Amino acid sequence: MLICRLLEWLTIILRAVLHAKMLVLIDDLIAYLKRPYLARIPEKVERPFNLVFKLAFICIIAGIGCGMLTGILIGLKIIPDPGPSVMDHKKMSKVLLFVMAVVWAPLTEELLFRAQLRRFTASIAFIALSCGAVLSAIVQTDWAFLVSPFIFIILYLVYRYNLSRSITLKFEFWKRIFPWHFHLTAICFSLVHLSNYEKGIGLLPLGILYTLPQLAVGLVLGYTRMNYGLKYSFVLHAMYNFFPVLLFLSKY
Prior knowledge:
By secondary structure, this protein is mainly α. Helices cover 72% and strands 0% of the residues.
């Protein structure tokens, strides 16, 4: 996909200046994103702070690169200008903004988007919730979320009476659909950030082109969650949000 291609170009550009272990990490990330799988989380991660800083560097570079690509698409009028951000007119104390961006948002988003990646039933709930969100966007009403429980019940019954009787059957099915679910999760994560714009879901169906940075970061966070654990994806998410918030606060 496009993000994987961008990461490959990034690897070529940085290969001459980065440490060998950093390049190994980038190569492993790209290989995983091409074919996500149910990786085994190591009991102990060597040099965890070093790992998180490397992943944060990758997130920042990928986010900036994708942001520049979005800016080029807008500048060339390939996609329309998304309009003002909600932060342009929202008044919020610096402390509250910092807590929301660096603590609350990473915590809730990791629990919603990444925690369920290793739980089959939770993934079913996520899919049902996503269906409700899509329907709400289409009909422009919150009542559409009422379909989510019914979708969950249907999917769970299919799972309960067709897959759960055999661990092997369940694993093979999950192994087959997991790559699709992994990328769907990253796409949903990026589209949620359309709420950063005043037009919000009104930017659909081109919405994902405005949230390419979040898509790239969402893929890296998914890789981190699956290969190192949820606590690492949370810390990485918080660290990534810290830098733009710091720049934003420095202007005021």
